[in-house]
Structures are given as structure tokens and as C-alpha cells.
Amino acid sequence: MNQSNDHKLITMFNQKKIALIAHDHRKQDLAEWVSINKNILENHLLCGTGTTSRILSDLTGLKIKAFHSGPLGGDQQIGSRIVEGDIDFMIFFWDPLSAQPHDPDVRALLRIAALYNIPIATNNSTADFLISSPFMSSEYTRHVIDYNSRLHPN
């Protein structure tokens, strides 16, 4: 990680670290998307929230590190991995029509992802664009605003 003025430069390497998450009513959609893109995803490091990871792994045979279920802290675990630099981007098929008991955690996760400038796909179309990007198989440097320097100027 390098630093440039008030930005941190974070390199995402050829093998991306991808979080896979889906709300209950979108798990089938994500499972279909992962199945279609299995040949690309198998070249990357995958993780996700509990139930989603198990469903995807059972269906596709992909190795996916499972954290807790979202309502039991999985969203927060994913968020902390983003902060630590252990997740490069996120595929999060969320359900915009159903209230979730852990909505504050979901909002916090999306805020952290935006704060650390990681790509986020919340639907099939965006996920297709991300996975077909030439950056999927090459290095990419993210420019992350250094909010610490803005909060605590010298």
C-alpha cells in the first residue's frame, strides 16, 4: 500500500479476493450467477456470509470461506475484512423489497465498501460487467481517500 497526498493506493492483484453475499430472496439468483461464472471465479479467493457460502459451495464445488450468517455478524465480519484489505470487491445480491432484521449492518457494510473504494455489484448486470472487466485478471490500483488525514490534519 502506497500513499499519495490524501489517498492511499491499494493494489488488487491478479487473483482477486471476492465476497459473495445474498439475501434470502436473492440466494437463487446469486447461485445461478455463480454457476454461470464458475470457470472465472475458481481462479480467485472467495468468501461470503454463512448460508450463502454453503449453498454456493454445495452447488458449484467452489471453495468459499464462510463467515457467520449476515444477521449473526457475517456482514460485520466482511466489513472488517474490507477495512483490513482482505476483500477486493463484493457481489451482494440484496433484496430491495424486503426489510431485513439486520438492515443497519447491511448499510454499514455498504458504507465501508464505498469508503474503501471497492467495486460492488448488487445485481446480475453489474456483476456481469465486473467479472468481464479486463481488471479481473490483472492488477488494479484503487485510490482510497485517506479520511484519517482529513479528520486529523497536521
Task: Write a structural description.
- By secondary structure, this protein is an alpha/beta fold.
- The chain is built from 7 helices and 8 strands; from the N terminus they run βββααβαβαβαβαβα.
- Strands 5-4-3-6-7 form a 5-stranded parallel beta sheet, with helices on both faces.
- Helix 1 packs parallel to helix 3.
- The longest helix has 13 residues.
- The radius of gyration is 16 Å and the shape is globular.
- It starts with a strand and ends with a helix.
- The mean pLDDT is 92.
Question: What's the short story on this structure?
Answer:
The protein has 154 residues and is α/β, with parallel strands linked by helices. The protein is built from seven helices and eight strands; from the N terminus they run βββααβαβαβαβαβα.
